[in-house]
Amino acid sequence: MELDTVLISRLLTGLTLTFHIIFATIGVGIPLMISIAEFMGIKKRDPRYVLMAKRWTRGFIITVAIGVVTGTAIGLQLSLVWPNFMQVAGNVIALPLFMEVFAFFFEAIFLGMYLYTWGRFKNPYLHWLLSLPIVIGAGMSAVFITTVNGFLNQPEGFVLEGGQFAAVNPMEAMLNTATPSKVFHVLSSAYLTGAVLLAAIAAFMLLKKKASDSQKIQSADYHKKALKMLMSIVLFFGAVNVLSGDLSAKYLGADQPEKLAAAEWHFETEENADLRLFGWLDENQNVQGDIRIPSFLSFLAFGDFDAEVIGLEEFPESETPPLIVHYLFDLMVMIGFILPAVSLLYFMFNFRKKRNEHNRWLLRLIVLCGPLAFLAIELGWYFAELGRQPWIIRGFMTVEEAATSSPYIGLMFLLFLALYIVLGTLCIVVLRKLFRGNPAELELEKEIGDQS
Amino acid sequence: MSYELIGITVLWLFLYGYLIVASIDFGAGFFAYYAKVTKKDHIINQLISRYLSPVWEITNVFFVFFFVGIVGFFPDTAYYYGSALLVPASLAIVLIAIRGSFYAFENYGSKDSTIYLFLYGATGLLIPASLSVALTISEGGFIVEENGWVSLEYFALFTSPLSWSIVALALVSVLFISATFLTFYASRANDQPALKLVRTYAMFWSTPMIVAALTTFIFLSQHNERHFHNMMDLWWMLGLSVGFFLLSVWLLYSGKRYGLAFMSVMMQFFFAFFAYGIGHYPYILDPYITIQDGATHESMGIALVIAFIAGLFLLIPSLALVFKLFLFDADYVKGKK
């Protein structure tokens, strides 16, 4: 019975976060795209880019609403589902949580202003300026909340006295060893995903057939411009993201070796450790069908092919993460390389043979990248979170000690599952309704008509 | 002043802020639905959505701010309230989620849906009711701790006259605050039909509001004598509260200075809320958590206070800008922008 509540507590938190992360990632990534598009539109005096900003904002606000309510849910659930954890850890992580709310507050204030002041200022740059606090606020709330997660992986900034945290140094806890690489990776992947999502939509619209010819040209023009801009952003953040992923792996190698070892099914401590790609475990826990790249794990973890990588055998079995994380890790990394590669392909087509970058297969590939990017985000977080099991605060508190003992937790799981199903469905229905009947070319005609 | 006292003061201020802005929001939901049922929706719905759409997210942040802040300053609250409130707080989350999604979706056609408008109105009443449970149990007697187990005594809660009178007070206060604000907003918009309608709402709800306040006070004296006597020592605050109430009703009745009327409603609740809060001292949760014992480490407390002051430098100008754009910009209020 005891174990059951713990398992359901984990499932409930996992469910809420799985759902929230989709909208949180959109919430961090999209404002930057909106801001870039509006700026380009004003600078180039091209109403198409401004229209992109407008249309993206309209869709964005729907996802923000769901991000806000699920964020409120997880904020409360931290105390409701893990009361023992918050009682202890609250002493150390309160500062970043508090600051995250400030950043969120800041963003909320300016989002309202940005939304309801289109065309209210004479100077268009004034309205664009309102987008900057949104970008900054969204980015900062991701930074602060990620430092909390960093702390749970790498608890620092306190002294343990009789099972309680004492001599707390809030800044040191916030700027723990795990924080820099985590923050870097979270931000770069969110911006990458934001750009990929919008690029996938543009590509999808280009693939669709249009009714009349003049509208077809208008529409294609709009979406091609969006696609090109977004693809260059994908290339940039795709490269940055690979770099940040590499730094994260180096952090794991140095400070969280059991997570890296589990991710790579690296059982024995050795020098010149091989990198394993894919494969599966047979019933004797032997790895089958994997591809080994000699000495590459040492290089990945330490930047040195001869470095010694600690294996899982060094850790007591009760403290090693589940081996399933290998699949999550491999898939995430693979997608992380695919996304910038597709963008590179797009630009190669663009440079070599003109016009061919919009061939249907490439567009289909770009559409596919949208869901892949979100899959990678989920896989990455599953890897990060399952990878520190059995701990909730690594080395100090297990999830079993932290969970609620309330018998109602199972019912609450069902309640929230129903809520997320409803919210998810509504989100899709409303977004479809919003854009189906009101394509870009129609709005563009109106807009240009208004100006002349 | 010690950091834990600063902490609770700041949090209480934010809870007060939430009380005001959320009441406007929740009450508006009920009035919007009520107007629809009585076929008067064309009069006030435009007014309601014009003010509320840009600020609903800010309202929500006040709430998040409070609960993150209280868990931060007083981590023991996470343990006791978190354990005890799993069910009521989860229900509140679901209601808030339904409501939050309404704002996002209302721009795109769901405004016409009676079902959604009903949910919007219903959540406007159910959320304050479910949140007021937290206030009720802070009075003590509803939470039991036995060998490391914290649980809520549902039977005691549901049979307590105190808990029902707090719920009633929350509901009617929400309606009274909201109607007064809407009266003020309608007068700024110079929207005479809307003004007439919401002014009758405001005057109607003033009586049940003061009656509920009185009954809550009586039941509190039976449930928690210490708290009651502490409040009686703050008689001048309660007196000011009643004075401001009378002033606001008189202004509403005489049909002028609606801005001042709303201000005095704010002052009325300010004094009542702070008399209630100060009277609660030193307990946060009677008898388990006091402000002194439940506070976080000093270093964290000071860091939080610093973060709070730094944050205010960011928030106050931003909020001022919002007010300037959406509340005091006469053209926007009138619907010209």
Automatic annotation (TrEMBL), chain A:
Gene Ontology process terms (BP): aerobic electron transport chain
TM regions (residue ranges): 17-39, 60-81, 93-116, 128-152, 183-207, 227-244, 324-349, 361-384, 408-431
Any one Gene Ontology cellular component term annotated for this protein: cytochrome complex
Membrane association type: Multi-pass membrane protein
GO molecular function annotations of the record: electron transfer activity; heme binding; metal ion binding; oxidoreductase activity, acting on diphenols and related substances as donors, oxygen as acceptor
UniProt-annotated location(s): Cell membrane
Alphabetical UniProt keywords: Cell membrane, Electron transport, Heme, Iron, Membrane, Metal-binding, Transmembrane, Transmembrane helix, Transport
PANTHER family in UniProt: CYTOCHROME BD MENAQUINOL OXIDASE SUBUNIT I-RELATED (PTHR30365:SF14), CYTOCHROME D UBIQUINOL OXIDASE (PTHR30365)
Stated family: Belongs to the cytochrome ubiquinol oxidase subunit 1 family.
Protein's UniProt name: Cytochrome ubiquinol oxidase subunit I
UniProt organism field: Salicibibacter cibi
UniProtKB/TrEMBL annotation, chain B:
Membrane topology per record: Multi-pass membrane protein
Cellular component per GO, a single term: plasma membrane
Keyword terms of this UniProt record: Cell membrane, Membrane, Transmembrane, Transmembrane helix
Lineage: superkingdom: Bacteria
Subcellular location: Cell membrane
Keyword DNA damage in annotation: no
Name assigned to this protein: Cytochrome d ubiquinol oxidase subunit II
